[in-house]
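User: Fold this; tokens only.

Assistant: Input:
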Amino acid sequence: MPETSDKELDIAIAGAGILGTSVAYFLSRFQGLKIGIFEREDSAAKHASSRNTGVIHRPFYIDPVKKPFFAEASSKSYSLWKDFASEFTLPWHQNGTLEVAGDAIGEKTLRKYARYAQMNGMEENEFSVLDISDLRRQYPQINALAGFYSRTDTAVDYGLFSSKLLELAQASGVKFFGNHSITAVSEDSDGVLFTCRTANGAKLFRTDYFLNLTGTGSLKLANSMGLALNYGLLLFRGDYWRISNEYTPGFSFNLYTVPRYSRFPFLDPHFINRWNGVREIGPNASLIFHDRAYSGSGMNAHNILESLNTGDVNSKIRLLSNPEFLRMLETEWESSKSKFAMAARLRRYLPSLSSTYIGKRGLGGIRGSVVDSSGFVPEALEFRTEHSMHMVNYNSPGATGSPYVAFSIIKSIIQDGYVHLKTGEVKKLKPENWEKLASGIEMQF
């Protein structure tokens, strides 16, 4: 039998990534709550939250009609992150992003981006659309028909952001349970019981409210409570390759291209200028079968069976029989295994990038993409019970928008009566705009 914890919690947060730590920091304002954040690793942001491109994107590419919440979250989170970085002296390198198109269809997409940018509240001086003559004059080394330049895109380190958020939350009383891997969750009329595997054996915890923000593990936890059973999960690793300092492309922004496979939620590889001066190309989207397969595919009988059995099987089989999807997978695997294949993909719009300039591998990251009977699910999914909330499929632009998403989660579960604050004692957050947002939560005492 698992050892029972002697401390019951008001709120348990599963997952110490960028969203979980953002939620923990906002909740730490309310001093009367007993809050725990549970993480299978020994510290925050060991996986997707620190293994990514490291760019805070302005919402120029988000259709505000199809994705209104993510558009709003990305727009409103930019100033939150900017002030947060300034307050705590964290990396903030505003170097911009140029996205280019190599054909007429892509050029049309860039024109749509200009409309999206305006609709999503970007100022006119934040972006510009470049035609072929503009590109040839300003950036002759880039081979494209058109470009969209977002000047305020910014290079950051989301891993450092997450660690600072956790540090601040702990200083205000949130308890961090590192090396606690949640293995089972159940609900009764009084709250949620969950079991954690630790180095000292299994431990059982009880909480009034359970927030499942575990990224790639969120669907499995939701399924264990009878939720999201019509959805399946596929895992993809994005690989990066380092660029030698000898290569001088003639620009310091991030270079993207309009994706060729628009039906699937993956971008073509980019040329990335990170905040610390490191330059990389990537990522791709290689199908893998284990959420820690940072090399190889994790393809063995046990992993394949477990991967197929996570969520709905039929939706995954349907997608894996799609010829276009299989062609994409072949291309993605080639650029994962070979730097020559990755260089060839980038040379379509950056002809001077010889594979001789590509060195060792960068830090790859893994994302879990949710699928249903129609294919890839485009948005994050939220499921609730009386005592729990589960955020599933929280992918790009998840890191960019996490402060506002965290605020929205907390506000909704309080206003809807899922969580009742037990005291009026509050602690002001820093910076000021985080406190201003947090103080807008309608408190029920």
